[in-house]
């Protein structure tokens, strides 16, 4: 059973935590990791870690691991079945099946005495399983966790009667917390996100969950050094009137571009994951392309190891029109599903679609790259695409080409949303409206206003505006030598009250246009993040549309004098 990866597979995500101390069994020395709510031997991998209930380890069956675990628990004062839940299962890092390891997983309450008691239990059980399992070639792990790391959590916007004062204080709080993180080696330069929202275990009354300063750290951050950091930050937060609580965890931003690499999963796992990742797209392929369509590079990518992979896939946001210096009129540019065929005719039609090059949309005409920022340090990530022909540009029914048509009544009804969470009905099936003149439209939203979008993976969805901004860092940008790798972003939070699964955006939705209840463009969705133990909806980051328009003009060095939403 592989518990150590080939060297090229080991990453910070799969690397084990540092050991707090070492002990010895019949197999030799082993480390013990011990942090709040979680103890393990050998040292555990960073959360989240999945339980693989269908994993089978035949040579180990019948060795009495669960019975021995209960015996050791009883000897250490945890003898009642209500005190601990014991399982013998596989545990793996999500998406890394080679990390699957047979594990005695124990769930029990965390008390002041737990660190020493749990460490003792882990040592005694590890000695036993090494003696029993080593002759069969297995390394069995011991993992003890508190319910705080197992129970589902729920996220909601930072709504509060004192929100105006909190919003005023937030920039100062955010900067000071980041400063504290930089004082400690375990967290310095490892932050990936700092945000403010409600986070807790109450699903029905989310306003009862604590107002949380959420800090995510990359997987290089050593969790053994977090306790003094948390204490220092919480001491600082207690000096405010807002009853804020700090939470640190390992987490990184999601890539909302869709990875097209064929999954190396069996049929059962593909069937389970299909509702989220949308491996099957029901409509027939379309030559004309409209907002919400998937779009990606029309070529395979060769990695450094010469392995050929599919490009990432995102969403076409909407059509824009640009006006160039010295050129009359406006030019249209694009602003950045298939089931298993039921009949042979379906299959023939789909093959012909590619054979006739109808899957080709256009060429990148201009793009921002990854390093540009707004005046307020927001991320700028845009591309303009020149369609290869006008039959690729989709219009609404009875309307001209290049019209940005919003979801119609049938599409909104198919989401099963309650009517009060839908945009105004006059927007159904009508063109996307331009943002109003003046300040950013996102700046005009209130603390509980809704935003809408149409994306490749999730279709038409709704999210709640979170009126305090988030600082975040995308992992890939650490290689780009940016003076300040963090950007400050507007966020929306999905919620199960607003759609069946609560998602606002997901893989494949990068670039989707976000609009308000009146159908006015707000911005472009570009990425997101889900806190650990939360449903997948999480927080979603949006680039203001006005900032993109201004940057297109600035990027052109005066050659583009106007940018607008394409209208009939």
Automatic annotation (TrEMBL):
Classification via InterPro entries: Peptidase_S1_PA (IPR009003)
SUPFAM superfamilies registered for this protein in UniProt: Trypsin-like serine proteases
Name of the protein this chain belongs to: Uncharacterized protein
Organism from which the protein derives: Chaetomidium leptoderma
């Amino acid at each position: 059973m592989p518990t150590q990866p080939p060297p090229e597979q080991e990453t910070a995500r799969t690397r084990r935590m540092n050991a707090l101390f070492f002990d010895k069994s019949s197999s030799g020395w082993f480390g013990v990791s011990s942090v709040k709510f979680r103890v393990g031997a050998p040292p555990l991998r960073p959360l989240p870690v999945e339980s693989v209930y269908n994993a089978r380890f035949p040579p180990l069956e019948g060795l009495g691991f669960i019975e021995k675990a209960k015996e050791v628990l009883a000897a250490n004062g945890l003898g009642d079945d209500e005190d601990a839940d014991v399982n013998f299962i596989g545990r793996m890092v999500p998406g890394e099946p080679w990390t699957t390891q047979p594990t005695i997983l124990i769930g029990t309450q965390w008390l002041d005495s737990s660190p020493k008691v749990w460490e003792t239990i882990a040592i005694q059980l590890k000695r036993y399983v090494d003696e029993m399992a080593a002759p069969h070639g297995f390394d069995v792990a011991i993992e003890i966790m508190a319910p705080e790391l197992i129970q589902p959590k729920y996220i909601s916007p930072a709504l509060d009667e004192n929100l105006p004062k909190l919003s005023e204080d937030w920039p100062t709080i955010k900067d000071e917390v980041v400063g504290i993180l930089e004082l400690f080696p375990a967290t310095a330069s490892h932050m990936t996100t700092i945000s403010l929202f409600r986070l807790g275990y109450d699903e029905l009354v989310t306003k009862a969950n604590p107002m949380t300063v959420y800090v995510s750290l990359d997987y290089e951050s050593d969790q053994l050094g977090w306790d003094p950091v948390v204490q220092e930050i919480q001491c600082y937060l207690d000096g405010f009137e807002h009853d804020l609580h700090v939470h640190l965890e390992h987490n990184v931003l999601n890539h909302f571009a869709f990875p097209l690499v064929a999954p190396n999963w069996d049929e059962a796992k593909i069937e389970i994951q299909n509702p989220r990742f949308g491996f099957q797209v029901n409509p027939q392929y379309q030559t004309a392309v409209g907002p919400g369509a998937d779009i990606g590079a029309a070529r395979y990518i060769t990695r450094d190891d010469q392995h050929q992979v599919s490009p990432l896939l995102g969403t076409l946001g909407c059509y824009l029109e640009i006006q160039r210096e010295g050129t009359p009129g406006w030019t249209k540019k694009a602003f950045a599903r298939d089931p298993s065929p039921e009949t042979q005719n379906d299959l023939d039609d789909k093959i012909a679609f590619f054979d006739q090059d109808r899957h080709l949309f256009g060429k990148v005409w201009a793009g921002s790259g990854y390093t540009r920022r707004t005046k307020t340090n927001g991320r700028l990530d845009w591309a303009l695409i020149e369609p290869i022909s006008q039959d690729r540009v989709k219009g609404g029914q009875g309307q001209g080409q290049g019209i940005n048509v919003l979801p119609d009544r049938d599409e909104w009804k198919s989401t099963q949303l309650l009517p009060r969470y839908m945009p105004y009905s006059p927007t159904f099936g009508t063109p996307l409206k331009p943002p109003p003149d003046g300040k950013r439209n996102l700046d005009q939203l209130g603390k509980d206003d809704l935003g809408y979008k149409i994306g490749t993976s999730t279709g038409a969805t709704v999210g709640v505006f979170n009126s305090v901004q988030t600082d975040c860092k995308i992992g890939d940008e650490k290689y780009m030598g940016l003076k300040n790798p963090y950007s400050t972003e507007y966020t929306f939070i999905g919620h199960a009250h607003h759609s069946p699964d609560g998602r606002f955006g997901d893989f494949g939705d990068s670039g989707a246009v976000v609009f308000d209840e009146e159908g006015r463009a707000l911005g472009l969705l570009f990425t997101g993040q889900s806190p650990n133990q939360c449903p997948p909806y999480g927080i979603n980051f949006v680039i203001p549309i006005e900032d993109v328009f201004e940057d297109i003009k600035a990027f052109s060095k005066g050659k583009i004098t106007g940018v607008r939403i394409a209208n009939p």
